[in-house]
Design goal:
Number of helices: 21
Radius of gyration: 31 Å
Shape: elongated
Bound molecules: zinc ion
Helix content: 25-40%
Structural class: alpha+beta
Length: about 650
């Protein structure tokens, strides 16, 4: 009597990707319900099992489905939106602003279904995701029939799905509670990265992951910049830092790990953390080369991931595996590095182990879920086949196989693709919907690019419009007169500051776009003579003056101020100015009270270019009437400070520089 199963795969070249790299040819696999019940030589399996459905796999490799160990699947909808940019400009300048505007549960669902279609076609049966509205990613993945680890993003910034980190943490908790026993979905929590999370967030997410025994998925040590920053802020590299926050108490899946040393690799091993190596993303964003061979030799579970389709730009795991092998060889200058069987192991069993689901999937072994694919190895680009060594089969898949060679995909015992036909998603419909979203995003960005202000707003953060300002500015020959005059009894000094101001002005093609100033102030302690604090700000200055009062007093135009949290280089690449001018001045700034009105008195020494001394008197104003009164006072104050005869300066320093 034979045992009855649901599906019997026969006449296949079976690559089990098990502990011993067992192969069977002609091999067979028996599937019952959601699981694999037997794997072996066809002759033996056929004697023991009979099935309702028998699949003849002639000319094909039967192997475990591929594991995409790190991605952000809804970003299929942002594929090709902004490329050839540095990570910060790409992320903060384009991805995050567009995400804030467009990402919704519907967006996430559509993007996920598109990604599922693409992944099923390329033989992926499991993916590890991190995004917003992750519950909708989970629903869409489950509808498409794919296995997925779905990590709800938590970070310190407001996100498209949560105003605060507490909200996203609560979302993650509820999501995990609802999905933790799902047959296909493993819910997880995803603190985005150490640089987008606070220590508190790292601790809270690790505790949540531990409470429910679910994975914690994050980005670690992706760029050298990230590691440098961590070192300068906390005195230690990324891995020890997150360890200090208790991150490794959880089952961690760490994406990237490009810039880590041997000690950190051992820390990851002791923590039983899984790693996702993402060669396309690391190459495209020039993040560096992960020490893959070292990680594997140390015993880490290293999988391979595509990363999000906006930084790859596809979800093709065949390409990714081949790239992983090639890059490892190039970097170690050793063609024996990362041989084909190991590269494929990373994309299957090691990947599943890295996701902490090695007991479910990743290899063809009895008891595992039936997540398997058929790959045609008979096409022109993959012929002929050699059988001299068992390694020949892995080489065929890794070095010459293409995702389009995948003909059939089964996940959890259910067919998702038969003979290149997708069974669970409607490709045509999805493509039409994606094209529609792309048109909307295009329109949004085209409009944004037209104004410096809207580009500034798109960066998010706190942008404030400054009120109108009454100001008077004169050139000084003797600054000491002003310093002495400030001691007069009619002037009350509230506080005094001394700083070195570095300004870089961005100019644009069209002067009506205004100009943008990146300003960095080094505050100086006059007693100790050291820089005590640095502050950077962005100011968008309009082009027009609003009006003139008195003789020397101006009512200045409105302007927008935002803290500059990124580098000058970031803003340069983001705003793409036509030209730049840099200025440096030493500024003594007094906040004073004169006739019950507050004024700022700035005494500037222009150092670069060397243009001597200037006095500036400024105060805020709220109405035209108020402006008139303050303009009168400012004019008076100019006389009190003994500078009434000074040469009037009607524009900013920048214009003086322009004349030089
Ligand atoms: Zn990523």
């Amino acid at each position: 009597m034979t045992q009855q199963v649901d599906t019997l795969f026969i006449n296949a070249l079976v690559l089990t990707m098990d502990q011993d790299f067992r192969q069977y040819h002609p091999g067979a696999v028996a599937v019952k319900g959601d699981s694999i019940v037997a794997v072996g030589m066809e002759e033996e399996i056929k004697q023991e099992y009979s099935a309702k459905e028998t699949v003849d796999c002639s000319g094909k490799v039967l192997m475990p489905g591929l594991i995409n160990a790190h991605t952000h699947v809804p970003m299929t909808l942002l594929r090709g939106l902004a490329d050839d940019l540095r990570l910060d400009v790409w992320l903060m300048g384009y991805m995050m602003p567009v995400e804030r505007e467009f990402v919704s549960p519907e967006f996430v669902r559509l993007g996920t279904l598109l990604a599922c279609a693409e992944q099923i076609r390329s033989g992926v049966t499991t993916f590890n995701d991190m995004y917003y509205f992750e519950e909708d990613v989970a629903k869409a993945a489950a509808d498409a029939g794919m296995r997925a680890v779905c990590g709800q993003t938590v970070m310190k910034f407001p996100a498209p799905d949560a105003a605060s980190y507490e909200d996203s943490l609560q979302m993650a908790r509820e999501f995990i509670q609802r999905w933790k026993d799902h047959p296909l979905i493993v819910p997880a929590v995803s603190p985005h990265a150490p640089y987008t999370c606070t220590a508190e967030i790292l601790r809270a997410t690790a505790e949540l992951a531990r409470e429910f025994d679910v994975p914690l998925h994050t980005h670690l040590a992706e760029t050298a910049f990230e590691v440098e920053n961590m070192r300068s802020e906390h005195g230690i590299p990324v891995i020890p830092y997150v360890k200090k926050q208790g991150l490794f108490e959880a089952k961690v899946i760490a994406a990237h790990c490009v810039h880590i040393d041997s000690g950190e690799i051992r820390t990851l091993l002791h923590a039983r953390a899984g790693v996702s190596h993402n060669p396309s993303s690391n190459l495209k964003l020039a993040s560096g080369f992960a020490p893959v061979m070292k990680m594997l030799e140390t015993g880490l579970n290293v999988g391979i991931g595509t990363d999000g389709p906006a930084s790859n730009n596809d979800l093709d795991m065949f390409e990714e595996v081949r790239l992983a092998a090639f890059v490892a060889k190039a970097v170690t200058n050793d063609p024996t590095s990362l041989p084909a069987p190991w590269a494929l192991l990373m994309a299957t069993r090691l990947g599943a182990q890295a996701l902490h689901i090695g007991h479910l999937t990743g290899s063809l072994e009895p008891g595992n879920r039936a997540d398997l694919i058929l790959v045609d190895i008979s096409p022109l680009h993959n012929s002929p086949s050699f059988k001299r060594s068992p390694d020949n089969a892995y080489a065929q898949i890794v070095y010459a196989g293409k995702s389009t060679d995948v003909s059939d995909v089964m996940v959890n015992g259910r067919w998702l693709m038969r003979d290149h036909q997708l069974l669970t998603v409607n490709e045509k419909e999805l493509l039409a919907q994606a094209a529609q979203i792309a048109r909307q995003i295009d329109a949004f960005l085209i409009e944004r690019e037209q104004s410096v202000l809207s580009k500034l707003i798109a960066l998010g953060g706190s942008l404030e419009q400054e009120s109108f300002e009454v100001q008077v500015k004169v050139k000084l020959t003797d600054p000491e007169t002003v310093v002495q005059a400030l001691k007069k009894p009619e002037i009350d000094i509230v506080r005094k500051r001394h700083y070195r101001e570095h300004d870089v002005y961005f100019f644009f093609d069209d002067p009506s776009r205004g100009r943008l100033r990146f300003r960095e102030d080094d505050f100086i302690d006059d007693v100790k003579g050291v820089v005590t604090n640095v502050r950077a700000r962005l100011t968008l200055l309009g082009q027009k003056r609003e009006g003139q009062f008195e003789d020397q007093v101006l009512l200045s135009r409105s302007r927008y101020i935002a803290p500059a949290s990124q580098s000058l280089r970031f803003y340069r690449e983001y705003f793409k100015p036509k030209s730049e001018v840099a200025i440096e001045k030493d500024r003594q700034r007094w906040l004073i009270q004169y006739k019950e009105t507050e004024f700022f008195v700035n005494l500037d020494q222009m150092r670069e270019p060397q243009l001597g001394y200037y006095l500036e008197i400024k105060t805020r104003t709220w109405s035209r009437k108020d402006a008139e009164r303050k303009a009168h006072l400012a004019s008076e104050l100019l006389s009190v400070l003994g500078a009434a005869g000074g040469e009037k300066v009607t524009e900013d320093y920048i214009d003086i520089v322009g004349e030089v």
